[in-house]
Hints:
By secondary structure, this protein is an alpha/beta fold.
Amino acid sequence: MRRRDVFAGSLALGGLAAGRALASDPIAAGLPASSAGGAKATGESERTALPGTIPPLVPIRAHVDQIVDIKVCLRPFRPMGPRLDVERIGDKLVVHNYGHGGSGWSLSWGSAEIAVGKALTALPRQVAVIGCGIVGLTSALVAQRAGLDVTIYTKDMLPHTRSVRANGSWTPDSRIALTTPAGPEFGDLWERMARYSWKSYRDYLGLPGNPIEFRDSYILSDKPFGSTQEFASTGPGDYASNGMPRSASEFAHYSDRIRDVIPAAEVIAAHDNPFPVAYAKREAVMIFNFGGYGHLLLSEFYQAGGKVVIREFHAPSDLKGLKEKVIINCPGLAARDWWSDKTLIPVRGQTAWLPPQPDVKYGVRYNGVSALSKSDGILIQGFNASGLGEMDGVGNSFEHADRMEAENAVTTIGGLFSRFSPRRG
Ligand SMILES: Cc1cc2nc3c(=O)[nH]c(=O)nc-3n(C[C@H](O)[C@H](O)[C@H](O)COP(=O)(O)OP(=O)(O)OC[C@H]3O[C@@H](n4cnc5c(N)ncnc54)[C@H](O)[C@@H]3O)c2cc1C
């Protein structure tokens, strides 16, 4: 692997220009892909948080002896963006809805809206949905809301899918496409999916158990935001020459398109900063609590008369046996095998889980690691373990836990809070 040979990018995090630079590679900068860390589309300049608005913060207790689970997930990444086209297989109309990279939770409703719209052109009364990950389940619900009778055919139910091994934050353009293969038109499609999803999620805010909620996320750094950082490649060439991206610079980012509705980050002035680091920002991030939200969606599906059949498909010809003539195909990365779609590239990611700490009502991002307090535990994810930014995990299909990686991530957060002074928090 050759490092330092692609480009050195200046990630200006401060000021208006900074927001734009950040949006071009937020993961490498330590922010969610949704984050521009600054200005909104209106041209408003970056704000400093009002004095006194940082609430007392209960420290996160992060110790390796508290790890209760390590989950590994493979993002279903397609360089040209999710597959949403329509195919005829015998007398069946198959609408594909898979390949959402690191954005499947975030874009699920909008992607479902597009897929169901295509299914409706055949005027069906019944529809089959293959898969019960977050993309399949939302497709099934959108189809029901359009008045269709829906059966989900799936190998696994939501709690056992890759979907619930994710992070579960609003990250709508994380590993969603590469700029060149996706082409300029994909931006419009992405924006439609992102806006529809954002609106749909708002319907699930403020409900008992907080299936969906906002958390403050503190972005922390020992160096000034805007320090020059280097990005690396994994080898010569690019996706066009290798069939595999080689550099984080190949990944597409679209978040600027929806700046008008996404809360901007705000700088925390030094005298208000409770963290043992020199620089801090805060942003409000929408998060998905898998247990409560998944349970709610499944209940909604059953209450509307939905049926589930546990079944595994091995080849497109298996569809012949289904009674439904219209099928929405949502198998995630598994389309690589059962639909022989070799455009899908696995992108490995891992999360470590600590017991829930209900008094902790926020998240942090520091030194390539994020910690987030969710209803089912403290989630800790090293999102840049290799130092390769968005190239981290690309092409890696090792779906087993790496204990060392988990311990390193937990230790980073533990070290941060061992220096945290509750008097300041
Ligand atoms: C570490 C990590 C963190 C992430 N964090 C986020 C995040 O914060 N926000 C976000 O938006 N996204 C995130 N993602 C991405 C997100 O998890 C995926 O995009 C999403 O889960 C894909 O969902 P899916 O329903 O398409 O696929 P899956 O969850 O894989 O579901 C596929 C379904 O199809 C079924 N199936 C598969 N093959 C067959 C078959 N042959 N026959 C029958 N059924 C079959 C499966 O049983 C399953 O029910 C993250 C991913 C990772 C790895």
